[in-house]
Amino acid sequence: MKIDILFIAAHPDDVELCCAGTIFKHIAAGYTIGVVDLTAGELGTRGNAALRAEESVKASAIMGLAVRENLGLRDGFFDMSESNKIPIIRAIRKYRPEIVITNAIRDRHPDHGRSAQLVSESCFLSGLPKIDIHDEAGHLLPAWRPKQVYHMIQDHYISPDICVDITPYIDLKIEAVMAFKSQFYDPLSPEPHTPISGLDFFEFLRARAREMGRLIGVEYAEGYTMDGPVKKENLLL
Fold first, then answer.
1. What is residue 188's DSSP assignment?
2. Residues 6 or more apart from 219 whose CB is under 8 A from it?
3. Most-buried pick from 101, 143, 164, 199 (CB within 10 A)?
4. Beta pairing class for 162-165 and 67-73
5. Which tens digits make up the pLDDT trace of 13-52?
6. Closest CA to 17 of 144, 196, 159
């Protein structure tokens, strides 16, 4: 399946928290969107891997994703090794995205910055034809390099290179995030409190979207940084 935009992120819910509005907007415009989660988020303080997998299915249905898969890398301990890059390269060649969006270049959670580097390097390597990668059926996957790699902005503020207006989709974004019920506010949950489990966290999400929107003169937006400049033939388009 050819995907227009492929999101590759460290944990289930990273994409929903930072990019759900962008996903809703581009699917509404007719583009195909896929998500690849690197880990099952098994080290998360709340919930467990099986529960988060169920929540990922719910969130994917809400957003209307064309595909979602989990690569099963070790939460908290994945590194820049070849064994971790190969499955990412396989996913990139399998889905042939025009754009890849991955984690923030730096953040409170160390997996995020590490994922940003791992995915960026894998996107480059995916374009090298001398690296042989095969699909599940044993067929050789031809080299493919996305045209651009973007990085989401997560817990820590980073000045964005671009912002996407998500004003019509802010409530849908919150709905997609809430699919991960184990991770967020639930007054009846016996799980430990975390920095994202309080009711005030949703105020932060909306405030961050307002902050990004203010930069481009709209009510709500999601911001991204880029690995490199974007080619423009016409500055007005």
1. T
2. 167, 170, 210, 213
3. 101
4. unpaired
5. 999 999 999 999 999 999 999 999 999 999 999 999 999 9
6. 196
